[in-house]
Design goal:
mainly alpha; about 60 residues; flat
């Protein structure tokens, strides 16, 4: 949960931006940014060990 992540990284509050929110905040064109963290669509192949690490971190 967001509260658990905040506690783990030692912050009082934690918020996430949506892809649309990030674009609105920067007032820039979508083509200027990588959207992989938002969409999961990576422009390169992620090696399986790294993919498993990412998934295990998301599951915690």
């Amino acid at each position: 949960s967001i509260q658990e992540i905040a506690k783990k990284i030692g912050v009082d509050t934690l918020h996430f931006l949506s892809w649309e929110g990030m674009l609105a905040a920067t007032k820039d064109q979508p083509e200027r940014f990588c959207s992989a963290c938002f969409t999961g669509d990576y422009p390169i192949t992620i090696p399986e060990p790294l993919r498993r690490t990412k998934l295990s971190l998301e599951a915690d």
